[in-house]
Amino acid sequence: MQAAVLQAPGKISVEQVPVPQPGAGEVRVRIEGCGVCASNVEPWEGQEWSSWPGAPGGLGHEAWGVVDAVGSGADIAIGTRVAMLSERAFAAYDVAPVEKVVPLPSALDGQPFPGEPIACAVNIFRRSQIEAGQWVAIIGIGFLGAVLTRLASEAGARVIAISRRDESLELARRFGAEVTVPMIDHYKIIGQIGQLTGGTFCPRVIEAVGKQWPLDLAGELVGFGGRLVIAGYHQDGPRQVNVQNWNWKGIDVVNAHERDPAVQLRGLREAIDLVASGRLDPTPLYTGRYTLDQLDEALAATRDKPGGFVKALVTLG
């Protein structure tokens, strides 16, 4: 089969490798497509702790496709279309434990479904404990921030979307944000949100960028006794935080990256229901379509965000 292999920083090749075989309790999925995650960018650029070459299909973890082989004890029918939680899906096939694949309903037939990032948004939203009427600041409006904007606004919250790009702010308005703020000047933003909220700031702040400045800003925008939710993936090194400020305000700080497989699966099931029921339409967020041999281009677009870009999908079938 064909599989993308990270050969060196900034260099991916498509290689012919053996088709993986499912073991006991596993299923093999013929991949239709896989989303490109922002967390793929740093390994692709060459983190100093990375090693090369990478595993065939490595980095790909937002896949969907059709079950084409099952191992002993895996109770799922061949031909079932599924979303999956796996790790080597930038390839024609990937293997996962049967409990990490979820059938897709007929309502999603013919639609791309990178379930893992939608599941992440669902789990982050749950951990945020957002209530109707609350001011909720969401810092960073990419794919994750846009979905969270929709979930929070549908829950009756008053969403303040903060992002660098004008098109991101327009996207946030389309997904339900009540207020949009350009992420240009740190102290101007703090002043604007303070004035908007009558000096109480926000009971909930979600940082969805994964960089130092947005994390600093999030700590300033959360109000006394509020909840700061870290949704950004901080993988490029340590961070410094103003614990004095956090301590004085008496806030809760939640790292909303779930590692419990049962919680991840719950999020995936809820994500499928959310889209199949029509409560969330992620289609406008899929702004770049690439083939497997264009994965380098997809990663560059994910990093550089050309005009109107939100999320790239790599399609294989």
From TrEMBL:
Q: What keywords are assigned to this protein? A: Metal-binding, Oxidoreductase, Zinc
Enoyl reductase (ER) domain location: 7-314
Q: Does the keyword Metal-binding apply?
A: yes
Identify which cofactors the protein needs according to its UniProt entry: Zn(2+)
Task: Give the Pfam families listed for this entry.
Answer: ADH_N, ADH_zinc_N
Is the Oxidoreductase keyword given for this protein?
yes
| Superkingdom | Bacteria
Q: Which InterPro entries match?
A: ADH-like_C (IPR013149), ADH-like_N (IPR013154), ADH_Zn_CS (IPR002328), ER (IPR020843), GroES-like_sf (IPR011032), NAD(P)-bd_dom_sf (IPR036291)
Q: Which protein family is named in the record? A: Belongs to the zinc-containing alcohol dehydrogenase family.
Name of the protein this chain belongs to: L-iditol 2-dehydrogenase
Per the UniProt record, the source organism is Sphingomonas olei
